[in-house]
Amino acid sequence: MKVLVIGSGAREHAIVRALTLDPTVDAVVAAPGNPGIAALVPCEALAGGMADGDAVLEVARRHGVDLVVVGPEAPLVAGLADAVRAAGIACFGPSAAAAVLEGSKAFAKEVMSSADVPTGRALVCTTVDEVDDALGALGAPHVVKDDGLAAGKGVVVTDDRDEALAHGRACLDKPGGRVVVEEYLDGPEVSLFCICDGQHVVPLAPAQDFKRVGEGDTGPNTGGMGAYSPLDWAPAGLVDDVVARIARPVVDEMRRRGTPFVGVLYVGLALTVRGPRVIEFNVRFGDPETQVVLDRLRTPLGRLLLAAATGRLDELEPLRWADEHAVTVVVAAAGYPAGPRSGDVVTGADGAEAADADAYVLHAGTARGADGALVSAGGRVLSVVGRGATLAQARERAYAAVDGIGLDGSHHRRDIAQKAERGEVAVPVAG
Hints:
- By secondary structure, the protein is an alpha+beta fold.
- It has helices spanning 10-20, 35-38, 53-63, 73-77, 80-86, 96-103, 105-114, 128-138, 161-172, 238-256, 289-296, 301-309, 391-402, 418-421, and strands spanning 2-7, 27-32, 67-70, 90-92, 122-125, 142-146, 155-158, 179-182, 189-197, 201-203, 208-209, 212-214, 218-221, 226-229, 262-272, 275-282, 325-332, 346-347, 359-363, 366-368, 374-376, 380-388, 406-407.
- It has 14 helices and 23 strands.
- Strand 12 and strand 13 (218-221) form a beta hairpin.
- The longest helix has 19 residues, at 238-256.
């Protein structure tokens, strides 16, 4: 089997890395890829960007690929998977109609309501006055979300009503802007990726990520500053419960609507005193959780994704997982997330690691300078993965590798998975 992976971040680097370890995969190509991916597989430019269906199909046909895996959400919302499937090539990723689950938070709430999925109360607003009223109705902490795609940075959670209202106003100022004001959900957050073929659901191992830029979960939201898996503190039966009460009902509802969901249904959860509640849906692998989840997956990834793309998940054997723990730490550019600086030289990130390496570097926002040097080219520059028999050992190895990275002005969090290592993550229970 030959596979084409669309994307250029650390998520795609992790996917490519896992595919190259799959004995059923003969060749992998990436478009556009990045310097880290290019060290593993051929990379192809996409002149029209990742949503350019004609360019993607040209690459796919030239390489004779059997499967296209779409990493980011924007090309999915734009209909890339539809174009690939219309050309007779299997595609792992939802149609444009199904991708609206991420493309519109208001639509996702409507689907959740129809499928009787547990989530927080929400009000959809199209004017500043409506946002102001919603903030008063739902109370603090205020949760204000841009209805559309915002690369993980469209959400503000704050006790400051003025800050919440300002974010709502900024979202409404966009063309066709809508805002979703939500009830704040207490409790630790969990990310669960569910592989779907339009009818069947196969969950992966849960992970936890860290959205805030600063240690102690301070500062603005980012695309994600780190993650870890497994979650030893999670309640027994959590995954089965989420599949039964959330993922499967949503997949059934989407099929009932005539827009079957094929790809990853990313369920973002809060484990509240009332049980799991959906914070958000995404329609692709999450970054940085993918880095730790795929590190632990021992079932060949290509076989899993092809089964989903071709409606044969029910024929797959149960997934196999490594017992080890995995931690990833994101190294971000100076100024991230507000105004990341590009063009700084990156050292300590080159070199291909062995498949069984205890720590390795995945490229996110990197490029080659005119002199061939590796330079920063995005907000999140690298994702450094550590693996260990314990969470403490995985953390130690990840941070040791981070300390070997050189990037002027860069920053990262030192507390990724720290509370879990100390046994300080608690799921609230009804008193």
